[in-house]
Every structure is written in C-alpha cells, then in structure tokens.
Design a protein that fits this description.
single chain, 701 residues, alpha+beta, four-stranded mixed sheet, four-stranded antiparallel sheet, 16 helices, 22 strands, 51% helix, 17% strand, elongated, disordered C terminus, MFS_trans_sf, transmembrane, glycoprotein, symport, symporter activity
Length: 701
C-alpha cells in the first residue's frame, strides 16, 4: 500500500523515530543537572560522564549492525533492543526517586550509591538500546523503497531528519519544565522521576507503533555479517603482503589484491570502495567534538547571560532548543532554495565540498562563541587575588561620612545610605580605617587574610560611630543564573525576615544574614516582622547571576523601606547573542550531516552500507572522546581560549579534508556491481553472500 507515492509503512517508521528521539533527547537534556544536583557530582565529573555516555551511544551501533545483518534481521533487532531501551529508561526514572532510600524523610537520599548504581545500569541499557537500533531504523526505512524510487527515498531521509529534530526540539523544551516541577511523597524535590518517566513512556509508545506496522514492512533477509568478512579480508591481505615482501614477488595494483588467493574478486572490489570512503572519514570526528559541546560548554556559557526575553524567561539549558528550531527551518530552505540557486550559478557543489563548507562554518561558530565569551568576561566581577583584600563601605547612618584607608591609601566620601564599589587593597599594606561622621571620628584597626571580600556598615549613633564588619563568603558568580540575597537590619531592634518561601531567621540590630540562593529573573515578596507588625514589599527584578545586600531601614504604613546594594552585578550580555553561533553551527550541521547521510549511501556497495554506517557513527563517538582529551590536556583557564583552540583545530582538519576530497574520485556502486555480475556470468558462478539490493543510511542522532 502506498500514500503520496511513498510506501505506507514509512509513516510508522517516521512516527517511531520521532518518539524514540523525544525519549533520548528528553533524557539527555536533564542528565547533566541530574548528575550535578541529585547525585551531587562536581562539574568535571558530570561533564566527563555525560560525554562518555554520548560516546557509548555511538559505539554500540556497530553491535546493532552486527546483530541485524548476521542474525536477527533489522525488524527483530529493532523490536528486541527497543524493549531493552524501554527498561533502561524506566530504571533511570526509578533511580531518580528520592524516596527510594530517603528513610528519614529529610529530602536527600540516605544511600546515594544505590541511585548511582541504578543510574549506571539504566544508562548502559539506554546506550545499548539507542545505539543498537540506530543503524537499523533508517536503513529499514531505506529498504521500503523500490530501486526506481530514488527521489522519494532521498526525500524520505530529509523527512526522517526532520522527525528527529522535531522530537529533539519538543523534548528539550518539555523535559526541563518537567524537571523544574516539585514532587515527592515525603518531601518535595525537583521532579527528576517525571523528567525521566515521560521519555520512558514515549519509548514504550515508539515500540508499540513500530509493531503495529509489522504486516506492511518489506523485510530484507539478513545477509550474513559482511563486517566480519571485510575485517578477515583486510587481515588476510596484510598478512599475505607481509609474507611476500621480498623483491622477487611482483607488486600488485592495490595492497588489498593480496587477498585474492583466499577471497573472491567481488568482496575485494567492495572492500576497496568501503576503505576509500572510510579513509575520508578520518578527519570528521573533529566536527562532532565541536558540535556536541552545545550540551556542555555553550550551556555553561549561557549561565553567565541574561535570559529575559520580555514576557518569558529562558533558562540556560533551554537555549539548546535554538538548534532544532533552526534545523526545522533550514533543511527545507537549503533543499528548496539554496542548492538550486548554487546549481543555477553553474557551481558544482559536490557532497564533499558541502562537508568541507560544513566544517568551516562550525569553526566560525566557535570563533563567534569566543568573541561572545570575551564580551561576557568583561562583565564578570573581579575577585581578590591571594595577597589582596576587597572592601565595600555602606553608610547606614543619616550623616555624611568620610572613610580614610590608612596609611594614606585612599579616601571615600559617602552621603546617607550611600555605598561604594568593592575597592581592592594589598592585604599587607592596609592597617586601619579612619571613619569620620558628624563631629565624631573612629580609628578601626584591620587585619585580614588575603583573597577575601568584606563589607563594612558604618553608622553614627547616639553612643558613637559603629563599624559592623561582614565577611562576604562569595568568591564566584552564582551558578545557573541564580541570585544571592542577604539582609542587613538597620533598625534599633531585632526583626524576622522572609523572602518568598525562604526564611532568613532573626536579625539583631546592625547585623547581616547569610546569603541565600534564589531563582534568577523573579520578583519575590520581602516580609519583615518588626515589633509583631508585619511589613512587606515586592523586591525589584534582580536579573540573573547577581548578588545583593538589601538594607532594611524601616516600615511606613505596612510598607517596608529597603535599599539595594549591588555586590555582584547581574548578567548583562543577553542570551540572544548566542543565536549567531547557533545559526552558524546549524548551517554547518545541515550541509555536513545531511550530506554525510547521502554521500555514505551513494558510495557504498549494496551489501556494505552497514559498514559505512558504523564508520560514520564511530566518528561521532570519537568526537566526544576528543572533547574529554582536549579539555583534560589543555591547561587553558579562559573559556574563550578553549573555544579558539577548538576552532583552530577544526580549521586545520578542514584544510586537510579539503585536500583529501580534492583527490577523491566518485564511484557508482551499481555500475561496479553490474560489471562484476557480467564477469561472473561469463565465469558461470555467483557469490552466495550477495542477495537482494540493500540500502542504508545514517543519522546524526
């Protein structure tokens, strides 16, 4: 049965792929945060395990291809491994249930190792499942077409790619929202079980949809595993060449021809074609090394940016959705507008040229990221070095005040309720502060440990000048765009302070609370209980990534009188400035990834598609491993320098690839096969391993 000229079975395959990608990307979107906040791992370990998991997801396809080609066939492989996959997602969901080991109901798991063990089992099963079915689904889709449906097949791969990105887009928007919900039996937590449970449910839906279409599929019989034969053929050729290395044996045209004693000509010719393409794959992992940092480095970059888009507040991890949104727009535009225009200009834009352009664009994207990082760095606060101290003065009194930093280092004048920026001094030089206010003065000796920030509140009271020292234990910008808030009580009596749902407790006169963490971009209600009177006021919008000291001065008719002193400025570089680098990287992906699919498809002999596919997915795995190596080996402390390093590496690789592509000659596997068929007819024999035509391709995800 067909619909719009496509086999009906295709629609089941596309829906299946959409659900599976939703499941995978949904789980992956919250994975790093799950490691960091639930399993309490540090940034480096979380990032390392994240990239290791992604690498594993791209190594297992080789296993899936082996099982499908030599044993179960694609249909059964997809069904069985999807069951493994669904179990893995379910285990992940269970592993994130806080109440599983939280016997004392204090809101944190009592036995973290149980959760870690379950998560690792879940992730390994997911990697087996997602990786194992990856080479089979797209290839199984390719199998549904007849040989004369070349155009429909090519269009199918574009639709297939769109379904991948639609699934990825929706899940990257939805799962962070689910994660942010509060849930739990005994104590309310971030809702990881829901964020992992919805992907698990979608995986089950994906499996059911796939099985429903069973009767309509064209199922190609497994053809024996060609990969093992290829390896054996290569191994034998090398061994044989080594045995006959002396001058008396005549040279052969190609080193693989040394396998001709044991293997037939067809296999040798096909292996040559495969090796020719695999050789071109060698530089490709560098592209994926940059591409997959969207989930790690670029998200961390967004945590130092302002996510206020008017009516909506964008969370740093939601910026990743820019990529799938742009893909959904770009794939049709590039196919329908840009490629035809290039053709009209009489430019021969071959697949390998497209891949080269893709690498160049990805390199530019990282240059853009580096330029943006330089702008962000300018807005970041400067914290004191080891031998330095920073001091900020707040005048809490009604009189003007002058503060002299002795011996004659600096003098500042402050009006009532005024405050200075942080001033940096060499710790060894600063000895005392001379405070003059009204007609009084006070000598305040100081001795600090280096590398710290301090705030001093000064007030001219009836009994004399008071200097209240606060130690500011903040040495970095708050993470994830959160804000830090603390209060100073500038009233003559003790008060109780709450902001939103957070209680700051009792504050004595002229004392400060500790800093507390609040979500960025919000306004909260500040409430103070003064002499059993409740006074309140709605806080200012405090942006993202800031720290404020809020001074409580009094209460007029139940309205609280407060003053804000900025300790760390909010993020001022807008998240929208990340869009250019996402745009460049998405353009790179469209010309690189989609073309990679078609190129691998067009250059492979009929029964070798799986080998090339495994090679292509292997480039993604190696790319993720490169991130681990480069990030571990480079001693660059500045993020922008690391971006430049990656851009330079990819540019170098891009030039090497361009040279390799220049010397590549395109082949038509069908012609070569036809020639071999002719020769075999003459010789009257047929290779038992070559059955029906088989078509496969690959997806980046």
């Amino acid at each position: 049965p067909s619909c719009f000229g496509y086999p009906l079975s295709i629609f089941f395959i596309v829906v299946n792929e959409f659900c599976e990608r939703f499941s995978y990307y949904g789980m992956r979107a919250v994975l790093v945060l799950y490691f960091k906040y639930f399993l309490q791992w540090n940034d480096n370990l979380s990032t390392a395990i994240y990239h290791t998991f992604v690498a594993l997801c791209y190594l297992t396809p080789i296993l899936g291809a082996l099982i499908a080609d030599s044993w179960l066939g694609k249909f059964k492989t997809i069904v069985y491994l999807s069951i493994v996959y669904t179990i893995g997602q379910a285990i992940m969901s269970v592993s994130s249930i806080n109440d599983l080991t939280d016997h004392n109901h204090d809101g944190s798991p009592d036995n973290v190792s149980v959760h870690i063990a379950l998560s690792m089992v879940g992730l390994i099963l997911i990697a087996l499942g997602t990786g194992g079915i990856k080479p089979c689904v797209s290839a199984f889709g390719g199998d549904q077409f007849e040989d004369d449906q070349e155009k429909q097949r090519s269009r199918f791969f574009s639709i297939f790619y769109l379904s991948i990105n639609a699934g990825s887009l929706l899940s990257t928007i939805i799962t962070p929202i689910l994660r942010a919900q509060e849930c739990g039996i005994h104590s309310k937590q971030r809702c990881y079980p829901l964020a992992f449970g919805v992907p698990a449910a979608l995986m089950a839906v994906s499996l059911i949809v796939f099985i429903i279409g069973s009767k309509m599929y064209k199922k190609v019989r497994p053809q024996g595993n060609i990969m093992i034969k290829v390896f054996k053929c290569i191994g034998f050729a090398i061994k044989n060449r080594f045995r006959h290395r002396s001058k008396e044996f005549p040279k052969r045209e190609h080193w693989l021809d040394w396998a001709s004693e044991k293997y037939d000509k067809r296999l040798i010719v096909q292996t040559k074609m495969v090796l020719k393409v695999l050789f071109l794959y060698i530089p490709l992992p560098m592209f994926w090394a940059l591409f997959d940092q969207q989930g790690s480095r670029w998200t961390l970059q967004a945590t130092n940016m302002d996510g206020n888009f008017g009516a909506i507040q964008i969370q740093p991890d939601q910026m990743q959705t820019v990529n799938p949104i742009l893909i959904i727009v770009m794939v049709p535009v590039v196919d329908a507008v840009i490629y035809p225009l290039i053709k009209k200009c009489k430019i021969n834009f071959t697949p390998l040229r497209k891949i080269t352009v893709g690498m160049f664009l990805a390199s530019l994207a990282f240059v853009a990221a580096a330029l943006l990082q330089v702008q962000i760095d300018k807005t970041l606060p400067v914290f004191p070095a080891a031998g330095q101290s920073q001091i900020k003065v707040i005048n809490l009194g009604t009189d003007r005040a002058t503060v002299q930093f002795e011996p004659q280092l600096k003098t500042v004048n402050l009006t009532s309720m005024d405050y200075t920026e942080y001033m940096t001094f060499e710790t060894s030089q600063l000895q005392s502060l001379n405070i003059i206010s009204g007609n009084r003065s006070k000598m305040e000796p100081v001795s600090f440990l280096g590398g710290q920030r301090h705030t001093v509140g000064i007030k001219n009271t009836e009994t004399g000048i008071v200097a209240a020292w606060l130690y500011d234990n903040v040495t970095s910008k708050p993470e994830e765009g959160n804000n830090l808030i603390r209060f100073i009580n500038n009233l003559p009596y003790t008060i109780n302070v709450t902001m939103g749902d957070t209680s700051f407790g009792r504050l004595m006169t002229l004392s400060a609370s500790n800093y507390n963490l609040f979500a960025g971009g919000r306004k909260d209600n500040i409430m103070a209980t003064i002499n059993s009177n409740n006074c309140s006021v709605t806080s200012n919008k405090l942006g993202f990534g800031s720290a404020y000291t809020i001074v409580i001065n009094g209460c007029t008719g139940n309205k609280l009188d407060v003053i804000y002193s900025e300790d760390i400025p909010p993020n001022t570089v807008h998240m929208a400035w990340q869009i250019p680098q996402y745009f460049l990287l998405t353009c790179a992906e469209v010309v690189f990834s989609v073309t990679g699919l078609e190129f691998s498809y067009s250059q492979a002999p009929s029964n070798m598609k799986a080998v090339l596919q495994a090679g292509w997915l292997l480039t993604v795995a190696v790319g993720n491993i490169i991130v681990l190596i480069v990030a571990g080996a480079s001693k660059l402390s500045e993020p922008w320098a690391e971006y430049v390093l990656f851009a330079a590496l990819l540019l170098a690789v891009c030039i090497i690839f361009a040279v390799m592509a220049y010397f590549y000659t395109y082949t038509d596997p069908n012609e070569v096969e036809a020639q071999l068929d002719e020769e075999e007819k003459k010789q009257g024999k047929k290779d038992p391993y070559v059955c029906e035509k088989e078509g496969e391709t690959v997806s980046r995800m």
